[in-house]
Write a structure and sequence with these properties.
The structure holds 2 protein chains of 2 kinds. By secondary structure, chain A is mainly α. Helix content of chain A is 80%, strand content 0%. Chain A contains 6 helices and no strands. The two termini of chain A are 33 Å apart. By secondary structure, chain B is an all-alpha fold. Chain B has one domain. Chain B is globular. Chain B starts with a helix and ends with a helix. Classes of the chains: A mainly alpha, B mainly alpha. Chains A and B meet through helix 4 and helix 5 of A and helix 6, helix 7 and helix 8 of B.
């Protein structure tokens, strides 16, 4: 094994350990929340998922800028791999959020009351469009350029979307209060640890996914060589 | 040739083509008219308060018609290989972008100049108020700024006509939301001061996306 793949195996093991430790903290260590009960425990996975989603899309933005600055294949790979993981984690945040919202707010998808739900829906739509665009553009180089530009345009519209959605709902009465940040210290510790382990999971997944993408590239190159030889 | 004259050359070219073919204006206008009639009949049967639905209907109409026009504008350039000619012209790519934006803006505004009075008549509302006209112009500017960039991109993909709305609408959400808010506020007679944040958001979007599109357009048309 070379140094890089050793490092990747190390990462795999580390995030596996961190996830198990997170599960222990979430279910056995953190105290039961007084008003919401056990369902509150989903919060420890929900918020980190959303965070990783946002962070992944931010990495896509940076990779896009880097690609336009210097068109190298690795930036394109980094961009779409990160976007894929971002879509996965945002979907996870949506699902866990719904599971939490049903017993707490008595609705699976109370988007009229919660601007963040609209935001996350728009985010998913934007990055679905990103993958549609990639599927419909011909030529690796053009695909990479288009995806980079769309990643930049899309990311900058997100804060404005959030602002407008928030103001839109500001004119309606606030039905649900957000839960405050008044977590007890074991809760805070659990939360911080989950945030860390989810970020680590993201890095691990990204490392593996970019490796697969590079191998796919090699495979395509090899099969092309084979075809020309035949 | 100065930069502005180059931009004007592009606008003039589009204007001439449009005057001869009348492709964009007629398709956008007829489509908008159809939408207004369909919306009018479908809402008339069940909605008592027209003011409640009119802003959304207006903006859905304008955005759909505008998307059609954008598709025409760029698809024609690609289909007839006029894009290569444009790129060979001795001018900066950003001049091409600004020229296309100005042209699209011009055609959309021209279509809106006819759509708005018809909309006012059909829905029996006075849309010809200064605040509302400002909203329409600002909204159309934001739409044209992002739309020109993304339609150039969409025109280079395999599924041209489908790709543009898929790419454009989620990015455009802030424009649509604030334009609908401003339209509703004006129709309900809300004082202008309380609408100011929405106006600022719209202006902010316009400036931000003109700059981003201006900077990235080069990468879309190269190669």
């Amino acid at each position: 094994m070379d140094r890089q793949s050793r490092f990747k195996s190390f990462l795999n093991g580390l995030s596996a350990l961190a996830m198990v430790a997170s599960l222990y903290l979430v279910f056995l260590y953190a105290p039961r929340e007084a008003t919401m009960g056990d369902v509150q425990r989903i919060f420890y996975f929900h918020v980190p998922s959303a965070w990783v989603g946002f962070f992944a899309f931010f990495v896509t933005l940076i990779a896009g800028i880097a690609y336009l600055h210097r068109p190298e294949r690795r930036w394109d790979i980094l961009g779409f791999c990160s976007a894929e993981i971002g879509v996965t984690f945002t979907t996870m945040a949506v699902v866990t959020g719904s599971i939490w919202a049903k017993p707490t707010w008595n609705a699976w998808w109370p988007w009229q009351q919660e601007p963040r739900l609209v935001l996350i829906t728009i985010l998913l739509l934007i990055y679905l469009a990103y993958f549609m665009l990639r599927a419909f553009v011909e030529g690796n180089e053009q695909r990479a350029r288009f995806a980079a530009v769309y990643g930049i345009v899309a990311f900058f519209s997100v804060p404005l979307t959030f602002l407008s959605v928030r103001w839109w709902q500001g004119l309606h009465p606030v039905v649900f209060e957000r839960q405050g940040a008044n977590l007890t210290s074991p809760m805070l510790l659990t939360f911080a640890f989950c945030l860390l382990s989810f970020t680590m999971l993201y890095v691990t997944l990204l490392a593996q996914r970019t490796r697969v993408a590079r191998l796919e590239d090699e495979l395509t190159a090899l099969s092309q060589q084979l075809q020309t030889k035949r | 040739m100065s930069f502005l004259r180059k931009v004007w050359a592009i606008v003039w070219k589009d204007l001439l083509i449009e005057l001869r073919t009348k492709e964009m204006l007629s398709s956008g206008f007829v489509f908008a008219l159809l939408l207004i009639v369909i919306f009018h009949f479908s809402f008339d049967l069940r909605v008592d308060d027209v003011v409640a639905v009119a802003p959304a209907v207006l903006w859905v109409t304008l955005v759909f018609a505008g998307t059609l026009e954008l598709n025409r504008s760029l698809a024609a350039e690609i289909e007839e290989d006029r894009m290569d000619g444009l790129l060979l012209a001795p001018m900066e790519r950003s001049a091409i972008y600004l020229g296309k934006v100005a042209g699209n803006l011009l055609f959309m505004t021209a279509a809106e100049a006819v759509i708005l009075p018809i909309f006012s008549a059909v829905f029996d509302l006075n849309l010809l108020q200064p605040m509302l006209l400002l909203t329409v112009i600002l909204g159309t500017t934001g739409f044209a700024a992002v739309g020109t960039l993304l339609s150039t991109m969409a025109a280079n993909t395999r599924a041209r006509e489908v790709m543009l709305p898929v790419l454009l609408f989620p990015v455009l959400l802030p424009v649509i939301l604030s334009a609908v808010r401003l339209t509703a506020g004006t129709l309900e007679g809300v004082p202008d001061a309380s609408l100011a944040p929405w106006l600022r958001l719209l202006i902010g979007f316009d400036i931000m996306f003109l700059v981003i599109s201006y900077l990235t357009f080069d990468y879309i048309v190269q190669g």
